[in-house]
Amino acid sequence: MKKIPFARRRKQLTDYKSRLALVISGKHRLVVRISNKYVKCQLVKYTSDGDLTIAESNSRDLSKYGFDGSKNLQSAYLAGSVLALKGLKAGIKEAVLDMGLRHSVKNSRVYACLKGAVESGLKVPHGKEVLPSDELLKKDELKTVITKIKGDNK
């Protein structure tokens, strides 16, 4: 008798083995999802009733800080920064990166989001070699936006 996988696995939406490892850790998860237009970041806590979103940030919302971008590296970095500041305000100091079914690619938008969160004060275990460089992110162009974000989230 053949065993049929869960529906979310068949549709390639959830990797239950990696999700279980993240849930067992007991830490909050830094969930990064990239759609066709935007980068969405969330701080999620597992509960027996379902996942509870503590804080979220979307690259679509960066326009209120004067940044016009959709899903590039800079947008991902800024979305991660906004999320970390919201999480720190909610009392979350550390998290674990949850990439979902995305493959780990050096200098990717997922790691740009991670770098933004880490540089804003969130503690997430990672390797420094996968994060995009400041030159790749063009951080000198983002200085005014970063100061607006930090001033708005105090």
Descriptive notes:
With 154 residues, the chain is an alpha+beta fold. It has a single domain (13-152), classed as Nucleotidyltransferase, domain 5. Helix content is 36%, strand content 19%. It has six helices and four strands. It has helices spanning 7-10, 16-24, 73-89, 109-119, 134-137, 143-152, and strands at residues 28-34, 39-47, 50-58, 95-98. Strands 3-2-1-4 form a four-stranded mixed sheet. Strand 1 and strand 2 form a beta hairpin. Helix 3 packs parallel to helix 6. The relative contact order is 0.17. The model has no long low-confidence stretch (mean pLDDT 89).
Question: Mind sketching the topology for me?
Answer:
Elements: H1 7-10, H2 16-24, E1 28-34, E2 39-47, E3 50-58, H3 73-89, E4 95-98, H4 109-119, H5 134-137, H6 143-152
Parallel strand pairs: 1-4
Antiparallel strand pairs: 1-2, 2-3
Helix pairs in contact: 3-4, 3-6
- Count of DSSP H/I helices: 6
Largest pleated sheet = 4 strands, mixed
CA radius of gyration is 16 Å
Specify the overall morphology: globular
Q: Strand percentage, roughly? A: 15-25%
Work out the count of structural domains.
1
Low-pLDDT windows of residues: none
Biggest sheet strand order reads 3-2-1-4
Measured as a percent range, the helix fraction is: 25-40%
What string gives the helices and strands in order? HHEEEHEHHH
Kindly provide the name of the CATH class.
Alpha Beta
Q: Do you know the CATH topology?
A: Nucleotidyltransferase, domain 5
CATH architecture name: 2-Layer Sandwich
